[in-house]
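Instructor's aside before we start: the two examples that follow are unrelated to each other. I chose them only because their records fit on one page, so don't look for a connection. First example below.
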Amino acid sequence: MKKLINIYTLFLLTVAIASGCKKSKDDNINGIPTDQRLSAALAKYKAKLLSGTDGWVLQVTPAGLKDQFGLSISPFSYYVLFTDSSACTQLADWDTTSVKTPQQSTYSIRLYQRPTLSFDNYSYVAKASDPGDANGPVYASEGGGYAWGSDFEFAFADNIDADKLGDTINLKGIFNKSPAVLIKATKAQHDSAFAGAWARSKSNFASINKILTYWKRLTVNGITYEVILDEAGRTFTFKWFDDTLHTQAIPYLYNLDGSASLVQAFTNGSTTITGFNNVSYDGTNANVTIGGINQATAITPATSAIKLDSAAPKAWYNQMNINFNGKWASDKAYHATGIDDSCKITAIASYQAYWYAGAGVFGTGSEGTCVLANNALVGTYSFSTTTFPANTGRIRFMRKSISGTNAAIVAGATMLYGGTTNNSSFREWYLVPIDVEKNIYDMVRYPDAKAWIRWHP
């Protein structure tokens, strides 16, 4: 009896497997097979992209570094013109080549878990995800292998039929989950893109950083703001003080009309700022028209912070002995009167870093500057004595002596001390905390604020 039951069970299992493997007529809807229905659905998405005869503006906010390292990256913009042959023409807003040199690339629309728009691995869109491409926006990200943490394959995210999509289409990155949006371009935007409008937008907005002082001020509706344009991080920061120091950093986008827009409007009381138009530098100030209130004004130089941190100098100094090797390091050395590395320190052969170090490098009771190159210290050192003028937010470096003759390091010493006389020449510098958790400080020259250096452990 047991044997008969087993045979019967095996028979039923065989029938079930055979039935499962057999293609059912129920796969057809109105007589149309599944494959044909899927092809027709994907064709609708392609038709939607092709309906943008003047192209599309693609805005992508990279999300990979935020998830991996807590780093927020501002959006990148691309202009994309799709063709029926699965080719596309791209421009991108992230470097001096991509803003004006159209790139021919390919795209595809395929079905994964949902319809997906993919760009090829060598496109401008993909370069933001490629840590090995030195021509991309970055080629060595923190942690390695993530570049900007962007995407080049995107799922259509609106959850409606393709033929119901409007002129704004939401997308979601497949790998890093980067949010993105396609906005149908106008004829004017098409023409502006190919005429190099993003290059003008970047150049115009960068005029703000032609102001020679470290600090810059903007007064709107009676309130004065300290403003910071971070071109690398693509953020615009507002600081203001009303018994409390407020700081708000907002990502921005370059537009195809020569302006820049804040990704989220800045609001303080009755003031709303959406971006900046007509930016130009007149040799002293950056003249701007403020978007949102359409007010023409100027961003002006300032020689001190809107709120000084009087504890910062000693905090910086005391942290030196805690840092690895008992030193502070700078990658780019001194920026002065609009010139990066004004002392040519980074031009030293096999340069790695400029140090301000204490006993861990020079021995007990000694401190000063030196340069690390080719994994060794260059044989020129400047030695200091330091004091802290009360309640100024400044540190005073007095020249004690110099050993060695390297011209760049000697020039750096003159920058630091303000002169060449031992035990007499001195200069004061403000200390500005940039990232307290990572111990990053800017040191700004007093009294003109036209020179500065960034320190990290």
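Example two begins here.
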Amino acid sequence: MTARGAAFLEALGEEAERLHPEILAQMRVHADPGRPDLDSADGVFTVAGSRFGRLSVLARPVVGPGLLVTRLARHVPFRIETASARTSSGRAVLATVREFRFPGATQYVRDRLFATGHPGLVQNALGDRGRVEMLEHCSVTSDGALRMRTRAVRLRFGRLRIPLRGPLRVDVDLVDGWDEVHGRRTIDMRAVSPLAGTVLEYRGWYRYAPRNGHAVTDGDGVAGSDQ
């Protein structure tokens, strides 16, 4: 079995010991023995989505399905489902499905994240077809959060790789931390284009818990509201 956060732990190396103890413990845990290497967490985004709304679908022919979000809302319940494994060469890989439960519609973002064998670096293949590939640098913040920032982006079409540089690049900054008061993980992600500004963002909290079919609210019973 593969640890929940094996890809991150391998990238961070000794620096992983600087993670908040709760985050480190959660990354080292293995999945439910009854469902090997599968895991899930539920939470609420205080804000999530894209300000471009339905215009985002114009990029679908290029990036493929499983990547674009066409809503922007506050208090959005969400679920993260992950499958941790190893490639035939032994690299840790984490497949993730993010389920955004917008009012009246559920949308999904999928990716597969790989350890690279190089200190601090992971590779992320975004969308159902993995057409957008990101090289991301992992580090630990002063308060023990995991931070990921984009180093390089490219489009993949079969064997063709097209680097996205300069005004065509997308810079992602993600911080995955710990809320001491409420005893839960926090998440803050922003993807920014030099030309278009913020193209996707989400921030909120989540907890790992057994699947019980119950929805998670933000404490006020709010199930989601469009902006």
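The helical segments are 6-12, 21-28, 60-63.
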